[in-house]
């Protein structure tokens, strides 16, 4: 992913950077020296099984707990030397809602405005704007305990935005939501990033990371097992291939000879060629067919999905969740 740049052409500082972050509880090492670099205005997803250290990383970077080793900067502030500067620049939405169910949605928002020391008139304006933005106006006067799960999560994020943070940590923000509410939350996250906010997201939903993240890091046993875009991570796992299907048996036989190392399916008149799914490899297959004057009736590219990546990197695909069945072709 290209480095974000300021208007003067110079690289802008990372929203979040960390080198060698470590954390242990007794003899249990939770984070074993992780490095992070997250450009401003992007979505970064930290994935991993339960107990991998995701929430611990968020707590350290949001100043809720201290690291045992390593260095980090958040919004240009050194985590150890300027924790107040970090807190002033960030918002945090944890796994468990900070919403007070005994008061109304509007009262929750005004309480946050008071905590941010906003003047009364400014606080009411900000609260009203955010309630409208998150489609909570009709429910604003109702006790928050009457809200659905999706409404509570929307209110939770709206409360986080009262202080106008430029970096938001979302720790498993859609856990427990139904698919419709989850997709609504995805749209909210996309809109935040469009507005220039940087989002640090932890999740166990594979599709969530695939849909939202500019870059993904896989955390396993306290270490970053791999990092990259979703497509780059998928290419780490063998099993990708191009499938060619023919209706003409003679074209099928000619393609078999022209392409060399292929897996044949004589009944379906289909060939399977190992491929990492890259444009370069796909062009190579097509060039070889063109040179031999052969045209396939159907071409599909099959790549490993994030399920396969997690199984390979963490040894337990079951430890992560996916909203939808795996697709054969990506």
From TrEMBL:
One of its GO terms (cellular component) is plasma membrane. Its EC number is 7.6.2.2. Keywords: Antibiotic resistance, ATP-binding, Cell membrane, Membrane, Nucleotide-binding, Translocase, Transport. SMART domains: AAA (SM00382). Pfam families: ABC_tran. GO terms for biological process: daunorubicin transport; doxorubicin transport; response to antibiotic. PANTHER family: ABC TRANSPORTER ATP-BINDING PROTEIN, DOXORUBICIN RESISTANCE ATP-BINDING PROTEIN DRRA. This is ABC-type xenobiotic transporter.
């Amino acid at each position: 992913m290209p480095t974000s740049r300021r208007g003067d052409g110079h690289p802008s500082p990372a929203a979040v950077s960390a080198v060698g972050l470590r954390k242990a509880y007794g003899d249990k090492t939770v984070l074993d020296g992780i490095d992070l670099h997250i450009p401003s205005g992007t979505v970064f997803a930290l994935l991993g099984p339960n107990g991998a250290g995701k929430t611990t990383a968020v707590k350290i970077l949001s100043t809720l707990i201290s690291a045992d080793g390593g260095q980090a900067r958040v919004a240009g502030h050194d985590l150890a030397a300027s924790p107040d500067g970090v807190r002033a620049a960030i918002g945090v939405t944890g796994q468990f809602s900070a919403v007070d169910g005994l008061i109304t949605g509007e009262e929750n928002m005004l309480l946050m405005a008071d905590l941010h020391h906003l003047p009364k008139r400014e606080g009411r304006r900000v609260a009203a704007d955010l309630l409208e933005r998150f489609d909570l106006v009709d429910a604003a006067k109702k006790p928050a305990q009457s809200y659905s799960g999706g409404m509570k999560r929307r209110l939770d994020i709206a409360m986080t935005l009262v202080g106008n943070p430029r970096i938001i940590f979302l720790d498993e923000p859609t856990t427990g939501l139904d698919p419709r509410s989850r997709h609504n939350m995805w749209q909210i996250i996309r809109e935040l990033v469009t507005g220039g906010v940087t989002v640090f997201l932890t999740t166990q939903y594979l599709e969530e990371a695939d849909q939202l993240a500019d870059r993904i890091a896989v955390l396993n046993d306290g270490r970053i097992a791999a990092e990259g875009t979703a497509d780059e991570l998928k290419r780490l796992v063998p099993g990708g291939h191009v499938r060619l299907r023919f209706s003409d048996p003679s074209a099928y036989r000619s393609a078999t000879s022209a392409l060399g190392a292929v897996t044949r399916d004589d009944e379906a008149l289909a060939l399977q060629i190992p491929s990492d799914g890259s444009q370069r490899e796909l062009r190579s297959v097509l060039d070889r067919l063109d040179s031999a004057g052969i045209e396939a009736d159907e071409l599909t590219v099959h790549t490993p999905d994030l399920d396969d990546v997690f199984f390979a990197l963490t040894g337990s695909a079951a430890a992560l969740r996916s909203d939808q069945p795996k697709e054969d072709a990506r």
